[in-house]
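Appendix B, example 12.
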Amino acid sequence: MRIPLLASVLTLLGPALAAQTTRYRDAVFAQVQAQNNIAYGSAVNRFTNLTETLRLDLYQPQADTASARPAVVIVHGGGFTGGDKATGQMVQQGQDFARRGYVAV
């Protein structure tokens, strides 16, 4: 009995749902603009006692006209002793979020 009710609700809401934008949910931008190795700070490396520059990669949807977008911060694992922001999985996540309209760091 629940399936007909669900079908009725979807039939009624279908046009309204289809009219809504899919930005932030689906990939709506084909191209991503990436800026790599942007310096944002520095920290002392506890193993070498040398000060290192901290860098991030920034992913944005290319040709987006929105003046304000939500941001997503992606942090790789490694316990501050390993890991790399340039691994395939990290890059893919940044690009995927940007294709949906987010700014990804």
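Confidence is low (pLDDT under 50) at residues 5-10. Residues 35 and 58 are 5 Å apart (CA to CA).
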